Structure formats: structure tokens, C-alpha cells
Amino acid sequence: MKKSVILGTLTVAGLAAGMASAATLDDVKARGELICGTNTGLTGFAAPDANGVYQGFDVAVCKALAAAVLSDASKVKFVPTTGETRFTALASGEVDLLVRNSTWTYSRDTDLKLDFVAVNYYDGQGFMVKKDLGVSSAKELDGATICIQTGTTTELNLADFFKENNITYTPVTVADDSEAQRQYTAGACDAFTTDASGLAATRATLADAENHVILPEIISKEPLGPVVRHGDNNWGDVVRWTFYALVAAEELGITAANVEEIATTSTNPEVKRLLGTEGDMGAMIGLDKDWAKRAIAVSGNYGEIFAANIGESTSIGLARGLNAQWTQGGLMYAPPFR
């Protein structure tokens, strides 16, 4: 019952925010700053560095958006949100958008009145255990204690998986990834479950990473992506197409290093439309001609952002997998810029 009340409250809040803030683009321009709801700290995706400056895969999307809208990638305020607070922060107008490993689901899209504008990471829920537990499959976790974040899809997925396999578990609820890591390493739970990318990010920060195993089962689909308030269609378009500019740039061979050169030398019609040397696509969404060029110049194309923050050469070590370009057997696919 409590969850129903919370969802109902969020629905009303979402409707109110949608009606009151149907011009987020204008608000961001007037403020001179983008307010991006992010994770409280997930290494590789969004976490403050030693100087307190947020870095990561999701952070790069926010910076690209700030460059597109405000011509300055540094004009971003990062607001950390937990699994339970993130959607309230968006619905209330505390943040302009969320870019923080949030799963696109039916109820979030409809009942919470939110719009997921794209998928920036295709993921799935997994389990991590200590090697000395002697477990090689999630189906062997009968009777286990499992650390799980509240306010997430992982709670429901976990219940479904154990029910389907006729096994039991005891949940150890946590507020965020950092608390989950503390509880898991302290032995408060036998296993930690979340998105597989999150498990890889957590393991990478452990002093004894080699002593922890991510089990083979992926028990759900977790399409993660940027979220905006329902009803603010123009702002949704700005966020959506800024992200797709990064995806298209990778397919078209445009990088942070060559974007200026390609803008002046390419004869490819789509490249010229994307980089503003032909037509005026920016005007269609309330931006100037160079919006996409600036977005790409910040941290590079989608592939560059992936490789630098979470790719196989980083401590997190994620392969592209489903997040490879469609031309490489993955699901990353930008609609045409025309």
C-alpha cells in the first residue's frame, strides 16, 4: 500500500511539474546552468573524483548537453540522487533531467509521467558474490542474504527470479551503491544484486577485486537512459538528439579530435547536416547551428565516452556487447539526421 501512495503522489507531482515547467530549455538558458540529477557515486558512470568533481560515462552526457545548450560544458550542476529520491527530484523540478542508471519501464513512463528519451546503456541485472562462498550460479543462492537498493527495479526482479526458481532469500535493503558495497564487504549479505554494469563498477573499487565473482545469470532487461518530465516535448527533443548526435558521430567517424576538420572538409550530406554546415537543424529544437559539434567536441563520440570511462581498458572493463554500434552487432543506432 505504501508504494501505491508514493507512486500516486509522484504522479500528481509529475503532472504539476509538467504543466508548470513546459519550457525547461528556456529555464536552462536563462539560468545559465544545467542541473543534472546523477548517482550518489558509481565509479565509471558518475562519481566525484578526489577534488569533488563529478566524472564518468553519464556525466559526459550531461556535459555534452551543457555544451550544446549553453556553449560551455562546465555549466553543469550535478545533484546526487538515490534510487528512492531520483524521480521525486525530477518531478518536482529540482533537476532538469536525470542521467543516472535509471531503467526505462512501463510504469515509470506512464504512471510517474516521465519520458525516457533514449537508451545510453543496455544492461541487465546480475549477482556478485565472494569466491569463498563457493557459488557458481545464482540458482545456488537458496536461503542467502542479498543486498539490494530500495526504490529500484532490482527489488521486483529479485523477487520474481527467486519465486520462479522456487528458492528463498532474505533482503538486506540499502539506499545506494556505496552503502551496498559497505554492507557486502562487511559480510552483512552473501550477495549483492544490481545492474551488471554497477556490479563491475563496484568490484573495480574493491582492494581484493579478484576475490569477487559476478555470476553468469542476467535475470532482466535494464535499458538505462536519460529521463525528463512528461509534457516538455521540446526539452525532450534537445536531450534525445544531443545523445543521438554522440551515437551518430561514432558511426560517421567523427571524434573529439577531428570534429572541426570534418566540419569543414566532409562532403557527406548527413555529416554536414549534423555539424551545421548545411541546413539549420539546430533551429528546429531551439539551438544554433553548432550545437552538435560542440557536444561531440567535449568528450568525443559515444564510443570514445564508453572507452574512456567504462571500457575494456579501464578498471571496470566492460565490453561493448549490446552497446556496440548496430553495424558491429550491437543495439546502438541513431535515427537519421535529416
Automatic annotation (TrEMBL):
<feature type="signal peptide">
    <location>
        <begin position="1"/>
        <end position="22"/>
    </location>
</feature>
<feature type="domain" description="Solute-binding protein family 3/N-terminal">
    <location>
        <begin position="33"/>
        <end position="262"/>
    </location>
</feature>
<dbReference type="InterPro" id="IPR001638">
    <property type="entry name" value="Solute-binding_3/MltF_N"/>
</dbReference>
<dbReference type="GO" id="GO:0006865">
    <property type="term" value="P:amino acid transport"/>
</dbReference>
<protein>
    <submittedName>
        <fullName>Amino acid ABC transporter substrate-binding protein</fullName>
    </submittedName>
</protein>
<keyword id="KW-0732">Signal</keyword>
<dbReference type="Pfam" id="PF00497">
    <property type="entry name" value="SBP_bac_3"/>
</dbReference>
<comment type="similarity">
    <text>Belongs to the bacterial solute-binding protein 3 family.</text>
</comment>
<dbReference type="InterPro" id="IPR051455">
    <property type="entry name" value="Bact_solute-bind_prot3"/>
</dbReference>
<keyword id="KW-0813">Transport</keyword>
